[in-house]
Fold this sequence. Notes:
- Keywords: Cell membrane, Membrane, Transmembrane, Transmembrane helix, Transport.
- The protein is mainly alpha-helical.
- The protein has a single domain, classed as ABC transporter involved in vitamin B12 uptake, BtuC, CATH 1.10.3470.
- It contains 13 helices and no strands.
- Helix 3 runs antiparallel to helix 10, helix 11 packs across helix 12 and helix 12 crosses helix 13.
- The radius of gyration is 20 Å and the shape is globular.
- The protein starts with 7 loop residues before the first helix and ends in a 6-residue tail after the last helix.
Amino acid sequence: MRRGAGPARPRAVLLASAGLALAVVSSLLLGGRPTDPAAVIGVLGGGVDPYLEAIVDARLDRTLMGVLCGSALAVSGVVIQGITRNPLGDPGLLGVTVGSAAAIVTAAAITGSAIGSRSVWIALLGALVAVGVVSGVGARAASGSVAALLLTGAVVSAVLSAYIQAMILTNPGVFDSFRFWVIGSLSGREAEVGLTIAPALAAGLLLAALLAPALNNLALGEDVATSLGTPVPLVRSAGILSAALLAAAATAAVGPIAFVGLVVPHLTRSIIGVDHRWQLPLAAVLGAGLLIAADVVGRIVARPEEIMVGIVTALLGSPFLLLAVRRGWAAR
Length: 332
């Protein structure tokens, strides 16, 4: 049987789910400081230990954020690569990351201090505005072609990156507020942040699921998709909205996390094939597991300190990107 067909697909999702469960358990039991697993399990079961309760609560919060944001970034990457037919596409093509960063530095410059709990709303707004500019300008250039969209995204990202650099170089206070957010970390993110981004995540995931059959048609080429009755411009616009909501919410919550949206879509296609009806759920599970596993690695390799998860995913994702280029995956 061809790899990724028939029973192999649900089996792959089940195996990925088991891996996610293992990552979640590891995230709860392991941390920057050694803890007795039996004691942690006791606290989870209702035991009373104020010190361990505080540790377990923090681990629960960052694990929840890892599940939500890892799934969102991975599904966003699948959608972006589907609508652009670009195997090296990721959410950053839409200006999500630089839009969030620009909003953060602007707010820090205005308030003169760290953003605090307001950063989620500010970053989310900045990301959506940037995506709106990219999609709006791209739609008016070259009849809304994919090339025009990507070029517009590159231009907007370059302009906003220059603005960010100018702000942090001329205002040290802005840099102090910005540097903790820009690396990307699950640490210190409370469960309330997850509730804040939940509506955007739910809308993005639902829209992505509804688009799965149309993305399959689009993978055959725009002409073939049109002949099959697929409204290509509408599908592309809906895909941009879905990917933007997912990536913007995740970036606003935990900061920029590199390579999850790029690596996971490649893994899903190599495991189960090109059917987006299976790619999307598998990507959600793999993305969550990958981000939580990277967070656990960052906690234990530098004890008693920790390496932020954004650094770990970049270190793990860079070799994969080089391998993709070497094997010619980018040309597929």
